[in-house]
Amino acid sequence: MKKLIILVVLALILSACNSKNSTNNDIEKIEKKYGANVGMYALNTQNGKELSFNENKRFAYASTLKTISSAMLLEQTPYNKLDKKIHINKDDIVPYSPVLEKYIGKEITLKKLIEATMLFSDNTANNKIIDELGGYGQVKTKLIDLGDTTTHPSRKEPDLNFYSPKDKRDTSTPLAYGKTLKKLIADGDLSKANKDFLLNLMFKNKSGDTLIKDGAPSNFKVMDKSGQALTYGSRNDVAFVYPDGQDKPIILVIFTNKDRKYGKPNDKIVSEVAEIVLKNINE
């Protein structure tokens, strides 16, 4: 009996190694195909299976930060208090604020702020959320409390999108980001109402339709938030993915960029990586 248990354990370890090697080989092919750099971390919270590639390499996180900032605000604000209103001034408005630019001189609720940043990636909305959290100093403190000393929030929108590989500001690694998403959202202190609200926004948003959602099987439920920096072809997506019949998510982080400062982002890189990862991690 003891020998049988040992053989089963060895078989599981060998299977995991083969899955990781196959995944990494396929992602390397995608990197070469598109002349890109890929970082990926995936965790199937149903069974603990992990896959990763360049998981400790720094990338710009861009607008995927809006998931973390929104979750932090929802953690500290009960659902029945999201009707709190804040005033929007003309000086608050930054480029790409399709919702908030209509609120100049008016008030908007915290709930509408979160909807604006998650559904429309509204930059002013995210800046106001950061203000509500007490600024980036408080955001960094919360990240440290979550065990994340890697993610480095520094600048507000839109400046955080000017990524440089020589600068740690507004960057993270796939591994650190994935662990933070798990601790903050999957396992965190969000009320059920607030967690459902956030994940439903991630499910309804359309900005990621050509990214992880495009690479996932049609019967998988994908809640995501995309990001795109203005330099080095940076294109990202983070998601909570629910395979058909599974009640716990696969947490998936895919960061990509190019070596040239003015390289163009490519959604196909993300979707093709997602297709490989979701196939292998769900076997």
From TrEMBL:
Gene Ontology process terms (BP): beta-lactam antibiotic catabolic process; response to antibiotic
Residue span, Beta-lactamase class A catalytic domain: 39-256
Signal sequence residues: 1-21
Known catalytic reactions: a beta-lactam + H2O = a substituted beta-amino acid
Hydrolase is among the record's keywords: yes
Alphabetized UniProt keyword annotations: Antibiotic resistance, Hydrolase, Signal
Protein source organism: Staphylococcus edaphicus
Domain of life, source organism: Bacteria
Gene3D superfamilies in the record: DD-peptidase/beta-lactamase superfamily
Family: Belongs to the class-A beta-lactamase family.
Region feature (Disordered): 147-167
Enzyme Commission code: 3.5.2.6
Amino acid composition bias (Basic and acidic residues), ranges on this chain: 154-167
Leading EC class: hydrolase
One Pfam assignment: Beta-lactamase2
Keyword Transmembrane among UniProt keywords: no
GO function terms (MF aspect): beta-lactamase activity
Record protein name field: Beta-lactamase
